[in-house]
Specification:
It is built from six helices and two strands, in the order H-E-H-H-H-H-E-H. With 208 residues, it is mainly alpha-helical. The protein has one domain. The chain has a two-stranded antiparallel sheet. Helix 4 runs parallel beside helix 6. The longest helix is centred in the first third of the chain and has 39 residues.
């Protein structure tokens, strides 16, 4: 929501640029652990995040709003719903903890430790990128959004949380500005999807 040999696993715009300018430094690479993380993360993130969120938000919600209000309002509406997801998840987590007799955790519009405004801005950029992916291809468009969602989660977890998540990669952030790489590469990816959409429309008779 770093680099060395593993840089090729990530989209180049953010991680590659971050490595080039020294914001990210890859210090260790355990290939076996990294492969294990990629497999485990792909399964869990696909089932619990990418698939349900894209099916409901960029699938049903975006499609329904687009038919009724057009693409612009559909993008804004589905993004607004997307911004409610983190806060709702904290409420659900607290509710489950109380039912289980555990200590309730954090409640807020952003996960604990995240600056609310920065996090919501990032989610907005992320949502618009996913909508661009959804609209970029003519066949199986929802899978384009699901694939993009899963890829972004994987890249960010390796790039920013590799050691904490035991991803087989240790990445040092030389500056707090490294987190800005995430919206940077999302914007670049969104632009690439929009360019793809223009090309697709140009070569598809009757496409609007």
């Amino acid at each position: 929501m770093g680099h060395v040999a593993a840089a090729n696993l990530c989209t180049p715009e953010g991680p590659g640029a971050g490595t080039a300018v020294g914001l990210l430094v890859w210090q260790q690479l355990d290939l076996v652990t990294l492969v294990g993380f990629l497999v485990t993360n792909a399964v869990v993130a696909f089932l619990l995040e990418a698939l349900p969120e894209e099916t409901t938000l960029r699938g049903y919600t975006w499609t329904s709003l687009r038919r009724r209000f057009g693409p612009a309002l559909a993008a804004l509406g589905s993004t607004a719903v997307f911004l409610l997801v983190p806060g709702t998840s904290t409420l659900v987590t607290v509710g489950i903890a109380r039912l289980a007799g555990d200590e309730p955790g954090h409640i807020g519009i952003a996960p604990e430790g995240q600056h609310p405004v920065d996090y919501l801005i990032l989610l907005t950029v992320f949502s618009l990128t996913l909508i661009a992916a959804r609209a970029a291809v003519g066949h199986a468009p929802l899978w384009a959004a699901i694939g993009t969602h899963l890829t972004v989660l994987t890249v960010n977890r390796i790039m920013l949380q590799g050691e904490d998540r035991d991803a087989g990669v240790t990445v040092e952030q030389a500056s707090g500005d490294a987190v800005l790489l995430v919206p940077l590469y999302l914007v670049v990816v969104a632009i690439a999807f929009l360019a793809c959409r223009r090309v697709t429309r140009r070569h598809t008779p009757g496409e609007k």
